[in-house]
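Write out the 3D structure for:
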Amino acid sequence: MQFSWEKRENTLDFALICDPFDKLLKATENKVEREWPHALGGVGAHAVPFLFSLKTARWTYVATCYLLADKPADPRRHLEFAVAAPPLNRTVLDLVFNAVFIFDDYSERLCWYLESGLNEVNKKIAQFQNTYGGNPAWDPWLAQFGQINAPFAETRDRVCSGIQPSKRRFPHPEAILRQKFKSGDSLKFLNYLNDWFYRDLSSASHGHWMGLGNRATQILRIEANDDIQLKHAQKYKSDCLVEQVALVLCLVSEIIAAAQFDNKPQADYIWGILAAYSLMTKELHEMRYQKLLSC
């Protein structure tokens, strides 16, 4: 049996994008750290969430590549490792949702994001104090731990200068979809991501039946020790990696477009390669990034 995804013309040679993608990620991190525009608050506090979102996404991608690589051959790298990929992909997708949502109303929502984070830190400090306060063995650690929110509070104060911070918890992706958006295109795009990506990845992360069933199918394919089933399992692994590359590229593209960095062509080049091999990436590109990266 010949599958369409086995045809040479439909098979992505990952070497085509590996080096350009790696360079794009690192270059964008450097730009966020050194060239964050004054229109978005300038270099420093305002750039920090986006810098570490990029770093988190890049290292998640690097770890996933290590788990799912075919070369160099390593008998310790099992085909079953692909079942670990969906929650990692969801991690990246969470960052995409945050970026799209924050850039839709930048100053207010970035302040909200940091204020919510600081509130969570303070709750954690209070939890430790209530449980272990007064215990001499814990006193030195508690005294040190209680100071960790000082830099966080300073960052919040800089970002929220002149803004009344929201006391509400910053929303998770599905709650983001219930917020008011200035840009209808951004809300439409997040609804698309929710329908076609987030629900499945969330189901896998939470161990819900559909997510568990998809991963169980991958395991059963491998255990069947049948050539056709093994090809399906290889395809599942490949799809997981392409999905993550696409989601990381979404995050990078959102930041490049919002900051108007000069490496838009490099991002669009990678979108073009992926779109030629994957309908999923072609739709993402045509729906949002073809326009964002050309402005």
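The chain has twelve helices and no strands.
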